[in-house]
Design a protein that fits this description.
The structure is a single chain. This protein is of the alpha+beta class and about 375 residues long. It folds into 2 domains: about 230 residues, no CATH class; about 130 residues. Helix content is about 45%, strand content about 20%. It has an 8-stranded mixed sheet with strand order 3-4-5-1-9-12-11-10. It is elongated and about 120 Å long.
Length: about 375
């Protein structure tokens, strides 16, 4: 049995919320917030992805600290232009065993005591999100129905271990303990080999001393202390994408359903009428405009999502994004949204076809009136002998 190590680092509970619109960072009232500036060390290798190319660079704000049970936690907020607010609750730990760390990772699963009051852990970030959203309300543009459920994720960042653990140690000597950390399973000894293998199958290791393991509920990063923030950003990037894809999937469901109702009511009309001011024609044009607006909005985001692989010149971060997107099934969600977007396009084409038919019928009617008017005028002229 290998010697049980003691671990030092921090656990970060991430909560990503959709605000129901884009966020114009230029109009965020920074005087009401406490922005965090992170200067880069001179001469350090910069691994950070190029957020500016797609507008994903967040505004980071300090939200202070809280006492949660016996732990003092620090809280940060991140405001993303794509319409997402992230609340990060960090807990530092020193010289914990694997069992102690698994217990800490499960802190967000139940009720905790805050300021002498017992609450569900999830209520803490929700309250902070609502307060931050209220503060930046004036900067939220292009509103749409917000996705109500947050994306949650846990980061286990190990800075030191005694005795020192190499990357291979997490995958072999302490594989079940590591799987227990990632799955939040206190009884990690009962995990099957297959379950442990599934939890650990997606990982990166640049050197023998560092490792990043990405699971669905959480990720473990050990070593690579100088680049931990950059690695965290890449996972964060994929998680924000997942939330936005779920948001647009739900938004497409609502828009397609509304389009079906509008088009169904129009197509059930015995006839469209021959004037542009007829009620069925007005409903058809409204539905067509909504379909067009939704197509533009969603297509713009999907194009950015498809181009993610071009956003970083750092190959290692690119590899990390790929395994994170594989674990989070980004491609599956993208495919689902693409299919619904295609359906939206079909409905738009159907609506435009009906519009064209209506216009053609109206023009034919007007032409017929014009011909009748000319014939009547000719008869009148002949009758008067002109």
């Amino acid at each position: 049995m290998p010697e049980a190590p003691s671990l030092t680092g921090r656990v970060v509970f991430q909560y990503f919320y959709d605000v129901g619109g884009d966020i114009d960072l230029e109009h965020v009232p920074k005087d009401k917030l406490s922005p965090i500036e992170r200067p880069r060390a001179r001469g350090a290798r910069i691994l950070a992805p190029k957020y500016r190319e797609v507008g994903f660079e967040p505004l980071e704000v300090d939200l202070g600290s809280r006492k949660v049970d016996k732990h003092t936690v620090t809280v940060e907020g991140r405001i993303f232009p794509v319409g997402v607010i992230g609340i990060y609750i960090s807990v530092e730990f020193r010289n914990l065993s694997f069992d102690g760390l698994v217990k800490l990772v499960g802190l967000n699963e139940g009720r905790v005591k805050v300021a002498g009051k017992e609450v569900n852990f999830d209520e803490i970030p929700l309250e902070l999100f609502e307060g931050l959203k209220k503060t930046i309300k004036s900067a939220i543009v292009y509103p749409y129905p917000a996705f109500e459920h947050p994306e949650t994720y846990t980061l286990i960042l190990i800075a030191e271990s005694e005795p020192r653990l190499d990357a291979e140690d997490f995958l072999t000597k302490f594989r079940k303990q590591t799987a227990g950390l990632l799955r939040g399973e206190r009884d990690w000894r009962s995990l099957s080999d297959r379950e442990a293998e599934d939890a650990l199958k997606l990982y990166l290791s640049y050197s023998d001393e560092d490792i990043v393991v990405v699971d669905w509920y959480s990720a473990l990063i050990s070593g690579a202390v100088e680049y931990t923030d950059e690695l965290v950003r890449m996972i964060e990037f994929a998680r924000v994408q997942l939330l936005e894809l779920k948001t647009y999937d739900r938004l497409l469901d609502l828009r397609v359903e509304r389009a079906y109702d509008s088009l169904r009511s129009v197509f059930r009309q015995p006839r469209m009428g021959v004037t542009w001011r007829s009620r069925p024609y007005g409903e058809l044009m409204r539905a067509t405009r909504e379909l067009a607006e939704c197509r533009v909005e969603v297509t713009d985001f999907i194009e950015d999502t498809h181009n993610i692989s071009k956003l970083t010149g750092e190959w290692y971060l690119g590899k990390l994004y790929r395994i994170a997107s594989e674990r989070f099934r980004i491609a599956d969600w993208m495919g689902l949204v693409d299919k619904k977007l295609d359906r939206l396009q079909e409905l738009y084409a159907m609506a435009m076809e009906r519009v064209d038919v209506h216009r053609a019928m109206t023009l034919e009617f007007l032409m017929m009136l014009l011909i009748i008017a000319i014939v009547v005028l000719e008869v009148i002229m002949v009758a008067k002998g002109l």
